[in-house]
Write a structure and sequence with these properties.
mainly alpha, Arc Repressor Mutant, subunit A, about 80 residues, about 10% strand, about 45% helix
Length: about 80
């Protein structure tokens, strides 16, 4: 009888995590992506895909990062990192 390999941590379904932890991970993911990809612009839909959250929570997270002056919304509604 062979033993199956445990799933990779990245493969664990986010739905299994408490919502608060999912939101914390989503915010951290967005910050990392904005920090590492120069000139990145994301829409709310893009952020929802990246964080695996719905279209209701994604703008809330983006607005929170905007309130912290980490990102800003451009005239066309896309979010980009604030220049340092």
């Amino acid at each position: 009888m062979s033993r199956t390999t445990p799933p990779d941590l990245e493969v664990v379904l986010r739905e299994e995590l408490p919502l608060g932890l999912r939101i914390e991970q989503a915010i951290n993911r967005l910050r990392q992506v904005f920090q590492h990809v120069t000139g990145l612009e994301l829409s709310v839909t893009d952020a929802a895909r990246l964080t695996e959250l719905d279209l209701f929570l994604s703008p809330i997270l983006l607005n929170a990062l905007e309130d912290l002056q980490f990102i800003q919304r451009s005239g066309d509604g896309l979010y980009q990192r604030v220049a340092e």
